[in-house]
Design goal:
Strand content: over 45%
Largest sheet: 8 strands, antiparallel, barrel
Number of strands: 8
CATH architecture: Beta Barrel
Length: 201
Amino acid sequence: MSTPLTACAGPAEGGPARRRSPWSRLRRFGLAAALALAALSAAHGPAAAETVIAAGLDARYLALVSEELRSGAEVGAHVRFALNDTWSIVGGGDFAVFPETGAGVKRLLGRVGAGIQLAIDELRIIPCVTVQPSFYVISGDPDGPSLAFGLLLGVGADYMLTRRVRLGVDLLQYHLLITDFSLDYSPSLVSTGNHVDHVWD
């Protein structure tokens, strides 16, 4: 008694060979990618999966990268929405004060932005990488405040003090890519400091 498996093993004799559709390959690739992502997500611990929202405050030291070092204080606030154990959407704003070149005038800088954050691992200490497209407002020019668009690039780590509280350290760099004012120095700033977060499940 013949079985259907024998009949389906290949094309009929003398018949044209069936070509595999590219959409079939794409579906197989998509399924394999989905399974791989699911396996990676399952490999992480449950700590981040429970973290739906975290909000916190920042206190940092800001340095202007130019011919001479100019520094000041920076404070801010942020919020983070966890998409899964690895990826989060982050947003926040900062306000900083630092001296201007030679004149002793305080220049003010404000920033607001949103982007993504990658958690490297889910242990008690959680290394993170952050990228945020941001808008900047800079005052201190005689013509009034100036606007800029740029990127915030950051690395840091969070320490899970309790289930509800995280303490963290950050090293951030602000790149001002598009501005409406002229500067006599490289438009890049470096900020480092601490933050504290409250976590809601």
